[in-house]
Amino acid sequence: MAQQKQRLRKYAQEYYQMGNECITVAHDNRAALANYDKALDLYPEYVDAWVRKGITLSNEGKYGEAENCFNTAIKLSPIDFKAFYNRGKLRLKTENNDGALADLDKATTLKPEHPGAHELFGDALLKAGKEDLASLQWRLAEELKKKKKKK
């Protein structure tokens, strides 16, 4: 049984990689989504596939479906940075400011060295009327970007 699950997980990873290639090489979201769906049929606990599917759906403007994917990823892995970051980004885009604040706060806690998370958290704080805290996050993002350039 464990061996079969391992094999399914391996096949799911192959479909996941094909989905990523559909986006990066062929620029074909429909084919990418079909591959992510196949990966998730084979291995429903595949957090990265849920996140990539959510990102792809979000890019197509299917925000409700995208949020469902991010929610599933977070249920499966409550400490997954990419799931919180992308759901926060989506919520900011859809004017769910309280949700965006919570998600981006969590994302910056999970990965404090990620400048994009601090930048988006600053944007969410500004929308919430917290200009001082927003400028602090933006300053942090700029410092992190400078630090990355030096490496």
The averaged pLDDT comes out at 97
How are helices and strands ordered from N to C? HHHHHHHH
- What share of residues are in beta strands? under 5%
- Counted by DSSP, the helix tally is 8
Low-confidence stretches: none
The strand count comes to 0
The CATH H-level homologous superfamily of the largest domain: Tetratricopeptide repeat domain
What's the main sheet like?
A: none
- Rounded to an integer in angstroms, the radius of gyration calculated over CA atoms is 17 Å
Pfam families: TPR_1 (PF00515), TPR_16 (PF13432)
Protein name: Tetratricopeptide repeat protein
InterPro entries: TPR-like_helical_dom_sf, TPR_rpt, Ycf3
Keywords: Repeat, TPR repeat
Structural overview:
The protein starts with a helix and ends with a helix. The chain has two domains: 1-78, Tetratricopeptide repeat domain (Serine Threonine Protein Phosphatase 5, Tetratricopeptide repeat); 80-151, Alpha Horseshoe (Serine Threonine Protein Phosphatase 5, Tetratricopeptide repeat), CATH 1.25.40.10. The model has no long low-confidence stretch (mean pLDDT 97). The protein is mostly helical and 151 residues long. It contains eight helices and no strands.
Features of the shown structure:
single chain, 151 residues, mainly alpha, Serine Threonine Protein Phosphatase 5, Tetratricopeptide repeat, 2 domains, 8 helices, 82% helix, elongated
